[in-house]
Design goal:
By secondary structure, this protein is an alpha+beta fold. It is built from 14 helices and 12 strands. The strands form 3 sheets. A 5-stranded antiparallel β-sheet has the order 4-5-8-6-7.
Length: about 325
């Protein structure tokens, strides 16, 4: 590992100023993602700026919805009564992730910035367009069983965000608050925050150099209260999703008034599906409707040799999640 300096920031202004003054620097909170990348020599930083003292905490109901500070820990958010009661899919996405030890350390802001688990990205012996733009994507012709089938490009087919939380947040119109070195804040929806790979897979989010994730806000809606997160993985503990679905339904007298659907494990970003929502809205809450919505959600899939099974797997995962919510 390369040598680096360490500083602890006492304020957001101090943290962003520290990053602005050093080109190769990074924020560190729980460190559960960053330290892995540094140990694998996938990222090198001359300076780490510890942001654990920053006042970006709190879980509170506001007029805009539930506001969660970016420095809250995954386990605390997943077990919070307001989250359990009003956003069950968000709670489930957190408590199904990682291990208890990691959930107790990892911050919400850091979780949003996870890097892909693609084996070619994680092994510096292979070329990778995310690490070295223009070097190629060996996953396209190689082992791609756990990679994306939606939103892929000729430059990259990785599931750039491999986690669970952002999938649930994308389903329920969550918004991130970002702050830059000048103290100016901007709000970005979770669905817009993550970028498709296109020809620039090295850029995964809208976060600008030096910016911090301050908080996230989830609107309080009927489909958020009646929701679930279903995760299918290769083993039952501490594994990333092969396919997952975050769904919410507002059902009255057997008819779906509105629906929210997002998929994980199958897209190059957390994958909101307006196609599935369109099929569901105004239709009866039946298995036939749910299967039609699942077909619509995967209609644009572009699978490769090893991950073709994900089309059917994602469809079945979505159907089961919808059936669970509908009762």
């Amino acid at each position: 590992m390369n040598n680096f300096s360490y500083t602890q920031a006492a304020s957001a202004k101090e943290a962003t100023a520290s990053r602005a003054g050093t080109a190769q620097s990074a924020y560190i909170a729980g460190g559960t993602t960053l330290l892995d990348l540094m140990k694998a020599n996938l990222e090198e930083h001359a300076q780490l700026v510890d942001i654990n003292m920053l006042p970006f905490k709190g879980i509170e109901q506001t007029t805009d919805g539930l506001r969660i500070g970016a420095m809250e820990r995954m386990s605390d958010v997943g077990e919070h009564p307001l989250v359990l009661q009003n956003y069950p899919a968000v709670s489930e996405s957190l408590l199904l992730a990682a291990s208890p030890q990691l959930r107790n350390m990892a911050s919400i802001g850091g979780n949003m910035l996870q890097r892909t688990r693609c084996g070619y990205f994680r092994d510096a012996a292979f070329p990778c367009n995310k690490r070295v733009p223009g070097s190629g994507c060996p996953a396209i012709a190689g082992d791609n069983h756990n990679l994306a089938i939606l939103g892929v490009s000729e430059a990259c087919i990785a599931t750039a965000y491999p986690g669970d939380l952002a999938v649930a947040l994308a389903a329920f119109d969550a918004v991130l608050t970002l702050e830059n070195a000048k103290g100016k804040q901007r709000r970005v929806s979770v669905t817009d925050f993550y970028l498709l790979p296109g020809k620039t897979p090295q850029r995964e989010t809208m976060l600008e150099p030096g910016e911090l994730i301050v908080a996230l806000t989830i609107p309080n809606t009927a489909h958020a209260r009646r929701s679930t997160y279903l995760k299918v993985r290769e083993r039952s503990s501490y594994a990333y999703a092969l396919a997952s679905a975050a769904v919410g339904l507002d059902v009255q007298a057997g008819t779906i008034r509105s629906a929210r659907v997002a998929l994980g494990g199958v897209g190059t970003k957390p994958w909101r599906s307006p196609e599935a929502e369109k099929v569901l809205t105004g239709a009866p809450a039946t298995e036939a409707t749910f299967r039609a919505a699942a077909v619509a959600a995967l209609r644009g899939a572009q699978p490769h040799d090893d991950n073709r099974f994900k089309v059917e797997l994602a469809q079945n995962t979505l159907v089961q999640a919808l059936m669970k919510v509908a009762g």
